[in-house]
Amino acid sequence: MLRHPDGTREPLAIGVPGDRDVDMKRVEAQVGPAEPEAFTDDDFTKYPQLKKGYIGPGALGAANGIRYLVDPRVVNGTRWVTGANEPGRHVINLVMGRDFAADGTIEAAEVRAGDGCPQCPGTLEMARGIEIGHIFQLGRKYAEALDLTVLDQNGKQVVVTMGSYGIGVSRAVAAIAEASYDDIGLCWPREVAPADVHLVIAGKGGDDIAAKAEAIAAALEGRAVRVLIDDRSNVSPGVKFKDAELLGVPTIVVVGKGLADGVVEVRDRKSGDRRDVPVGDVVDVLVATCRG
Fold first, then answer.
1. In terms of residue numbers, what domain contains 20?
2. Residue 83 contacts residue 56 (beta carbons within 8 Å)
């Protein structure tokens, strides 16, 4: 049933191929400003020609007081199996244009991957998405309540039509995380990462390793490279490495036992590539990496 703005209700039947369901969102978009409602048992009582579960085109159409719209796939010459308007019975080989007609067409069936594009030779591909922004068409409801008017092109006062839009910052972050994570954790693009470099202090060098790591971090910060430093002493290096992978800062630097050989390890979080860089060059290398 369609409920119109004036409160009247109108029955509407939609015919779709048997392997498709009606998409109520598509119906709502095309019957507005009317609103679709479920056809109830009371409605069946008012239209006794409709046999629940066995409705066929013979009981539908303007002549029967029930508007009947069909999917564009239901065209003249096509054959169908439909209800026979009698309990427990169906009709086979009912031909559109010969045995029944419709009052019009409506794009109301669910869409599927592989469906043809109505505007080009291509086919539909389905993919999951995440909403990061939205637009609301508010119409004139609030404008009328607020007596919100402007002068139109003819210099007359008219009520404005309102709308709103918004971008959700937290939703945007969630969308980036969902699009860039891998099986071991987050993998932030550098533009939105909480830091440029995750510096991990590892090994048994004690104060010497910690001091060198702090010096590298200070030099990087002095050149506008954001550094997250893991100087925890109560967890193992393995835990620190796992946490670094989980947090997903684009570049991971390990200051540890390689310091005895004058090198630190630089890891690319996304690709997993690792390389040893001389301690004296590491600041310049990281600055170039983060800006490159």
1. 2-105
2. yes
